[in-house]
Specification:
852 residues; alpha+beta; Agglutinin, subunit A; Hepatocyte Growth Factor; 4 domains; 5-stranded antiparallel β-sheet; 23% strand; elongated; EC 2.7.11.1; glycoprotein; ATP-binding; membrane; transmembrane
Amino acid sequence: MLSFMQRPMLPSRFQVDQSMPFTENPPERLQGNTSQRLENSSSMATAQFSLSDMFTKFCVFLVFCSCCLRLSEATNTLLPGQDLKDNKTLVSSNEEFALGFFRTGGSSSSNYYLGIWFKDDPYKVPVWVANREQPIPDSSGVLSIRSDGNLVISDRRLIQVLVNPAMLATNGSTVARLLDSGSFVLLEGESTVWESFYYPSDTFLPGMKLGFFNLGTEKARDQFLVSWQSPSVPSTGSFVLALMATMNKTQLMFHRDDVSRVIRYLDEHRFRSLLNSLLEDYDITFVSDAGEMYLTYDTSVTDRMSWFVLSPSGQIKAFTKIGKEISAVYSPICTNTSSGSSDCHIDKPALCPNANNFRLTEGSVPKPNAFNELDHLGISDCEIMCRRNCSCNAFGSYRDDGTGCQFFYGDLNFFADETGQRDAVMLVRWNINETAAHVRRKAEHWSKRLLWLVLIAPVVLLVVSAMVSISRWRNSRIAAWKNKMDTARNLGLFLIQLGSDVSEANQDSRYSKLISVRKRDHELPILSFSCVSAATGNFSAENKLGEGGFGPVYKGMLLGHEIAVKRLSRKSGQGLEEFKNEVQVILKLQHRNLVRLLGCCIERDEKILVYEYLANKSLDSFLFDPNKKPSLEWKRRVRIIEGIAQGLLYLHQYSRLRVIHRDLKTSNILLDSNMNPKISDFGMARIFGENQAQAKTARVVGTYGYMSPEYAVHGLFSVKSDVFSFGVIMLEIISGRKNTMFAHSDHSVNLLGYAWELWKFNRGVELMDPALANPSSFGEFSLCLHIALLCVQEHPKDRPSTSDVVQMLGNKCANLPSPRPPPYCSHIGYCSSQERQEGVTNDLTCSTIEAR
């Protein structure tokens, strides 16, 4: 078992990385054998050169050419002969990670590095850096696979840096690939030669391991995190996050040659306790056996990725990525390196117990007394150096990239009035027991400011209050004037919709001019909520005409005209899209058999439509009411059927828009004072293109009993879907029975199946509404039954078009084709045995229906 405490204060690999960074030469323990092999291989190659060698080189050349042609395509793989440079990147197959060259340190820095970052991160914050100790001085960096199969970074200086010096390839047949996990791997066939997860930087990703591997062998290695030197310099910094080999469940952070902070977790629960709010986001695993001992984790939440970063100041920070958004989700374990938290440990006792706390202060160190310009020093190094000298009262970074140190030795009171430039930060030693002089000076400083504040604040407050009051008064007057003009304009438009005189609303000449402009625009009046509310008696119960799935309908009186107000309920399945759809569709439709939209209201959360008032309400209120049904004699029913067909023909063929209603039913057929039908409720309507035959939706909405089978089951709809609904309405009109409520003592079939059985056995007259027992109408009744059964056939191609329906209704002597069985053969979804023998099948499946 390896022991961390038996080595120097830093893990051996970290020390090797400092003394021998990535170079073209392999490690010393491999160099001799490698050189010998290369020498032998060279002599053999010279002796055995033949025609086959030329053929092999020719093949390699062809592969190189083909690879170069594919470089422009986004890929996760780097092949021999390819290179990665400029702004080109490798992208993992899940498009989560990207690998390429980046520059850090702002505009003042020209150093470039090869790294991996999240593809969606606009800042390209790297999670792994290859050449931490050997940055490229300009943008000429190139990543490629060398002829011996190893990854190298080169630049215009022709200096090559090996990416995988500790794990070399054995032949030139290698490829490099960026995996979905964020690891960059070098492969020989299916075998992994090297991967970036073996040598992490400062970031602990899901699936990455920290610990010891290949224990008891010559290839033993350890994996750990090393912080950046500063937030803008990726070179190895002061802190290491690793696993302690002699204490199986202890995680340590090292600071070069002294332990700066220890984080212990006696068991898995203790480690989780340090993560606070992220308990549910991680599945942490600790593995220990004869060959390896490591700590790893995976995120337990599938819709996000979470990871840890060891910051240059020694803090462990957690981040999460949901979609394309990256955010910090957990505050560091220690808020600063001098924290007294139980989760933090300072190895050496404080040298200045009465003044050993540092606080972050905006500004740079004014007139520093001492400097340490070493490039490898970060802010945490500056802190340790200052804390060990009680005369040091402040410190900060020397350069803009966060490296180097500057110190201040002097009176802390100096900082009360001068802190240098404000775009930097420094840490100041803060003595809890401040001197009386310092307190008095601060008190005098703030008392002067307070005096000025007391004198000036009332005057400023008075002036601001006056300006706000004047502004509010002015805005209220303007808003009131605009509201008055808008109300007058919209009321005038409302009268124009009814063909009335504009002077009934307002005699103002300015208003008349507005009306003439709006009249040419054909705009819909947008009425105020107060206007609609007053017209309906504040939506009183006495004015309520009825209520459907969309919400209640009220009768109102506006400018001497009766109106019907449809107020969309907040609990309705019809939302803002359906509301807009109904307004846009019906506004462009003008036909005597379509209800007229007079205006709308979209104030606050209200969605209200104002229609022309139809005195006789809906068709179903007559058709299914035993007291009103007798008033619908046969000829009146035929006129209603023909009127609905004419309105439907206009929608499908002759209007400016080709409209599919999708919710045709008797409750959506309104009757005026002369019992003329008008199609209403276009909330579910869809507009078709000129050459469009059908469409499909994933959200099936409508009313059970009126929907065609292809729409109810598969979401397919067309003009033939409306024809099916029209056929159901025809059967309800001639029979006086409701399809969805139909039941017969001798049959289990619904209205469609019952009508089919009667027609099949020449007993169709039995379907006639008893209120229509008039022998003179039997011929027309049979024709209507025949047309209705043609409309409700199962397959859309078998149903007639709307124009065919109108022609058949007008031509009483036409020879009509025989209908096929309707789809709904029974309530339980099965056809009768006789129909099954005739080959009639019902493949209708269940579908979620949203009632309206």
